[in-house]
Structures are given as C-alpha cells and as structure tokens.
Amino acid sequence: MRGLKDKRVLITGGASGIGAATAARFLAEGSRVCVLDRDEKACEHIKQELPALGEAIIADVTDLMQVEAAFAEAIRIMDGVDVLVNNAGISIRHKFLDIMPEEWDRVIAVNLTGVFYVAQTAARHMWERFSTEAGRGVILQTASTNGMLGYPYYADYNATKAGVIELTRSMALELAPKVRVCAVAPGYVLTPMQRAEYSDAMLDEVNKKIPLGRHATPEEVAGLFAYLASDDAAFATGHVYTLDGGETAGGLASR
Question: What DSSP line would sit under 96-122, residue for residue?
C-alpha cells in the first residue's frame, strides 16, 4: 500500500484477533506500530510474536485517564500517531430478556464509550499536529454488520455498533479536511472471541448462510484497514466499508 512506510499506528484491542492481525499487517507495510489492550497476558504474547512492535500498552478503554496516559506513551514511543485503528470491543451472547444491567453497561462502556474516549483523544492530537496538512490523520473504527441489520442474541452489541457507525459519520464531517474517518464493518470473522461462542454445528450453520460459504479471517480485515489508512484511499472519509462475504447483500445471515 502506498504511503504506509514509517506511518505511526496505534491499534486498540490490538493484542489478539483482528487487532493483532492488523498490527502484523501494518508492520509488514513498514509502519511503526503500538498496540493498546487491557489483557496483560495477551500483550506479553504479542510482543513475543511481533518483535518489531513498538510497545504493547496495557490500558482499559473505558477509563479516560488510562486512555490519555496510554496515548501519551504511544506518542512518546513513536513521536506521534498518524493512524488510529479503534478496534477494542466485546460481545456477550444472551437473549434480550436475559441481558443483565451490568452486562449492558459493560458492553456499552467498551464498545461505544471506549471508542469515543479513544477517538476524541486521537482526534485532538491529530487536529493540532496536522493543522496545515489536509487528510494526514486517519481514524479507522471497527463497526460490524451487526450495526446495520438486526441479529438475535446480541441486542447490546448491535446497539453499540450502530452507534459506532453514526459516530464515525459525525466525526468525518467535523474533522475534515485534516483527519479522515472511516469504519470497517466485518461480518462473521473467525477470531478466538467468535470461535468461543459457537459450537462446530453453529459455525457450519452460519457458514451455509454466507454467500462465500465461510467466515472472514482476521488478516482479511487487516488488509482493508491497511488500504483505508494508505494514500490509495486518500479521498475516502465518512463511510462504512463492509467485509462480509456477501452476507448483507440479501440479509441472509439475519434470517
């Protein structure tokens, strides 16, 4: 991808799954990368897996003070942040009537409030740093097809991802022309979090509903993030890019 060499990239939820694959992809493109994650063991693991990584910073995105401290650490290590991949998220599979208030609050805190904290902190840094360089800052956010269609058993998760989509659009309008803001909306991705929630039979059943017949890999999502951060996507802002194997073309997976 054009223009990714030496870009300074911060990835939240970056120690596993889509975040880890995205870190590996940006490193392969010649970028400088730090990840932020609340899981201390996962942070230690990814530092071993990706020795070129700048740092794996332990922080909880639901705590603004931790977010600001982590961002300051990333700036210290990389001398700035050009690209944010705002990826941290959780899901809890429950029937709507069984969702507990504390579960609702936790999903909202990580998937929406945390996304806001990180995005605003990054935007303030980029707005100041790139005051005379249109489009130099890039904020990419992980949405989901769950924020676009109705899916059972994930009411709280669906609500947060719809919120991320609208937050992305609003940010793009306000931060242009200095900062580009886009969202990636994956469909079913075979991450450790996803695999843990599905039996083999459930996995096969979902795959049958996807036109391409399978889940995406984290590496495929990482490739889309790399493209959107690159100079090849210099005119892309304010939009949501789905990567779903045709899932939403006919709403098949929501039936």
Answer: GGG--HHHHHHHHIIIIIHHHHHHHHH
**Residue 117 among the catalytic residues:** no
DSSP-based three-state secondary structure for 213: coil
117, 157, 227, 241: the catalytic one is: 157
Report DSSP state, residue 88. -
Tokens 């899916």: give the residue. 151
H/E run at residue 81: none
pLDDT in tens, 158-200: 999 999 999 999 999 999 999 999 999 999 999 876 788 788 9
Mean pLDDT within 54-72 = 98
CB 33 within 8 A of CB 25: no
pTM of the shown model: 0.95
Q: Where are the domains of the chain?
A: 8-240
**Whether residue 251 has pLDDT greater than 80:** no
pLDDT on residue 135: 54
Closest to 36 (Cα-Cα) out of 57, 52, 53, 65: 57
Q: Among 180, 176, 87, 167, which Cα is nearest to 139's?
A: 180
CATH 3.40.30.10 fits 8-240, yes or no: no
pLDDT of amino acid 197: 75
Q: Which is nearest to 7 in space by CA: 237, 218, 227?
A: 227
Q: Which of 214, 215, 216, 235 is nearest to 224 (CA)?
A: 216
Q: Are strands 83-86 and 137-142 parallel, antiparallel or unpaired?
A: parallel
